[in-house]
Amino acid sequence: MPRFAANLTMMFNEHAFLDRFQAAADAGFEAVEFLFPYDHPAELVADKLQRAGLSQALFNMPPGNWHAGERGLAAVAGREAEFRASVDTALGYAKIIGSPLLHVMAGLADRRDPAAMTRYLDALQFAVDATEDAGVGLVIEPINGRDMPGYFLDDFDVALDIVRKIDRPSLRLQFDIYHRQILHGDVIMALRSMMPWIAHIQVASVPKRNEPGTGELNDALIFSEIDALGYDGFVGCEYRPAGTTEDGLSWLKAW
Ligand SMILES: O=C(O)C(=O)[C@H](O)CO
Ligand SMILES: [Mg+2]
């Protein structure tokens, strides 16, 4: 059975953010992930995590001005200094919270623009150099353009090529089954071929992004395949509960 992590940005929204840790533990989760902790002191987030007896699976590096529509900085022109500072901020939080992984968001830029690609590769190289010695891994995630129009990294093969080009053990793929299905389909074959480069998996139904088992994919078969492939990381439940989080957890009880 895969080890599932509750995504506290999307799940348990019945509670204030800092109360979602205990709610996730009470619901049976052993780990959590979320997008961003930066509105709260790292020590407070770490305290909530520890009191609830949870592990942190990952969170994202600062994305720029999220509320103004920014979705990361790594490939964005003119934001290089801010990106480097954000690596420092994220690493500081990761050390205190105890997160083994950080998601580096690319931002809105044209992947076919050679200057943007060079900027992105340089940013990833910088981030790997800055975090590797601390034992914090990095992941990059292809995201579909329907949910995030204009997002730089919108192709799984391109993402894999980038990971292979940087060629450092601490840079890996975040394989979100939801995005994979929307972008390319062929989920199981992609898991098989990309598994050596995958450090984090996420799941949601397609197309509504609700609970697993409620969309067009056979999620039970995909979970069995993830087990069969020997994946030992977490599968982040990055879905929007169709009703209350608790009411929607029957799929998990089956596992
Ligand atoms: O959108 C997703 O799927 C993610 O995992 C990002 O971390 C946040 O946008
Ligand atoms: Mg995701």
Structure commentary:
The structure is a single chain. By secondary structure, the chain is of the alpha/beta class. Helix content is 36%, strand content 15%. The chain has an eight-stranded parallel beta barrel, surrounded by five helices. Helix 2 (42-51) runs parallel beside helix 3 (80-97) and helix 3 (80-97) runs parallel beside helix 4. It is globular. The mean pLDDT is 98. Bound molecules: ligand LPHNJNCV and magnesium ion (MG). The site of ligand LPHNJNCV has 9 residues, from loops. InterPro entries: HPT_OtnI_isomerases, HyI-like, Sugar_Epim/Isomerase, Xyl_isomerase-like_sf, Xyl_isomerase-like_TIM-brl. This is Hydroxypyruvate isomerase family protein. It comes from Rhizobium terricola.
Write out key terms for the chains shown:
eight-stranded parallel β-barrel, hydroxypyruvate isomerase activity, 9 helices, alpha/beta, binds ligand LPHNJNCV, TIM Barrel, binds magnesium ion, HyI-like, 255 residues
Give the secondary structure arrangement, pairings included.
Blueprint: E1 3-7, H1 20-26, E2 31-33, H2 42-51, E3 55-60, H3 80-97, E4 101-103, H4 114-131, E5 137-140, H5 156-166, E6 171-176, H6 177-183, H7 187-194, E7 198-203, H8 219-228, E8 234-237, H9 250-253
Parallel strand pairs: 1-2, 1-8, 2-3, 3-4, 4-5, 5-6, 6-7, 7-8
The chain binds the ligand O=C(O)C(=O)[C@H](O)CO and magnesium ion.
